[in-house]
From TrEMBL:
<keyword id="KW-0269">Exonuclease</keyword>
<dbReference type="InterPro" id="IPR013520">
    <property type="entry name" value="Ribonucl_H"/>
</dbReference>
<dbReference type="Pfam" id="PF00929">
    <property type="entry name" value="RNase_T"/>
</dbReference>
<dbReference type="InterPro" id="IPR051274">
    <property type="entry name" value="3-5_Exoribonuclease"/>
</dbReference>
<keyword id="KW-0378">Hydrolase</keyword>
<protein>
    <recommendedName>
        <fullName>Exonuclease domain-containing protein</fullName>
    </recommendedName>
</protein>
<dbReference type="InterPro" id="IPR036397">
    <property type="entry name" value="RNaseH_sf"/>
</dbReference>
<dbReference type="InterPro" id="IPR012337">
    <property type="entry name" value="RNaseH-like_sf"/>
</dbReference>
<dbReference type="GO" id="GO:0003676">
    <property type="term" value="F:nucleic acid binding"/>
</dbReference>
<feature type="domain" description="Exonuclease">
    <location>
        <begin position="2"/>
        <end position="187"/>
    </location>
</feature>
<keyword id="KW-0540">Nuclease</keyword>
<dbReference type="GO" id="GO:0000175">
    <property type="term" value="F:3'-5'-RNA exonuclease activity"/>
</dbReference>
<dbReference type="InterPro" id="IPR047201">
    <property type="entry name" value="ERI-1_3'hExo-like"/>
</dbReference>
């Protein structure tokens, strides 16, 4: 078996500028500017490396934060190749039998977004595993996100004078971690590990995408009728949607039913951006996908989790109110005695 561990660096819009998504009509949050990867054999020994810069087509100005973090300059990118060429070179280098590993799921999400952005099939051909999830599960018994640098520190792995936030170097660091843990055991348990994972990487590909902006109160975004309503991407019939459930952070999910074409997943993500007058505003993206059994199960499980959280919260509030009432009654009785 050949393992390919890869890492991506990508440029971002300035000040959370949403014009990038509006121009492309896609839920794309960045443009890939570097692909780095390593090959490992069955014994997780390094056999080859790959690295290329990608010349951006949309986000041609480097974001200052990205440039500072990655040390990638506009001159570096000017020497790069197009994304289509870069990805073709990467695929040729990987070979057909490679198994992918990344640190976290963001790279897979970004890769799928950029494949669609440049008119390539969005489906990743290779089996993929999230090494970050495997590490967290094997080391800590959970799926909490762990920074790559923190994982290396826990395992007493040094950087060997390599700098972080370089796509090739981060792939090498991930390889060090994979070799230091029982990776095969983690892969064998991967279905269980990912059972309650809410990453977009595990969702079906987008069928349709919408973006709404100019919200001043984040709490009211999902109460807006045009945001909540969803239509069948096949016949435009209004979908009958279940109660919106929070997945994690500012990500939400509902299952919608079309009387003619069945079930669809309706996904919302709330973000913030700065207007030209420096006024902070909120936007929300709405994405429709297929709704396979796994997504329906995720929705049901999250609905049950949220229900229990709400019940626990209400119970705490009731207990707190009862305590306040008891204190007030005590003081009132004391006043009567006096």
């Amino acid at each position: 078996m050949t393992y390919v561990i890869f890492d991506l660096e990508w440029n971002q819009p300035f000040a959370n500028d949403i014009s990038f998504m509006k121009r492309t009509g896609l839920p794309v949050s960045g443009e890939i500017i570097q692909i780095g990867a390593i090959k490992l054999d069955d014994n997780l020994e390094l056999t080859d490396t790959f690295s290329t810069f990608v010349k951006p087509q949309y986000l041609t100005r480097m974001h200052k934060h990205v440039e500072k973090l990655t040390h990638i300059s506009a001159n570096d990118l000017a020497m790069g190749v197009s994304f289509v060429q870069a990805y073709q070179n990467f695929e040729d280098w990987c070979g057909k039998e490679a198994v992918f590993l990344t640190w976290g799921s963001d790279d897979i999400v970004m890769l799928r977004e950029n494949l669609k952005l440049f008119g390539l099939p969005g489906t990743i051909k290779h089996t993929w595993y999230d090494a970050q999830l495997i590490f967290a599960y094997l080391q800590h018994g959970n799926t909490q996100q762990v920074a790559l640098s923190k994982a290396m520190e826990e395992l007493n792995i040094t950087q060997d004078e390599l700098t972080a936030h370089d796509a090739l170097n981060d792939s090498i660091f991930t390889g060090y971690v994979c070799k230091a843990i029982p990776l095969a055991r983690g892969i064998a348990q991967y279905e269980q590990i990912t059972k309650n994972t809410y990453s977009q990487a595990y969702f079906p590909e987008p069928i349709s995408f919408f973006i709404y902006e100019n919200f001043h109160d984040k709490r009211k975004v999902l109460h807006d009728n045009k945001v909540r309503r969803a239509h069948c991407p096949e016949c435009q019939s209004l979908l009958t949607t279940n109660k919106i459930q929070r997945l994690s952070g500012d990500k939400f999910l509902s299952i919608g039913r079309c009387p003619h074409h069945g079930l669809f997943g309706v996904h919302w993500r709330i973000g913030k951006y700065m207007k030209r007058n420096r006024e902070l505003s909120y936007y929300v993206t709405k994405t429709l996908t297929a709704a396979p059994e796994e997504l329906q199960t995720l929705y049901e499980e999250r609905a049950e989790t949220n229900r229990k959280k709400e019940e626990a919260y209400l119970a705490r509030m009731a207990a707190k109110q009862a305590e306040e009432d008891a204190k007030q009654e005590f003081f009132n009785n004391n006043d009567k005695i006096k």
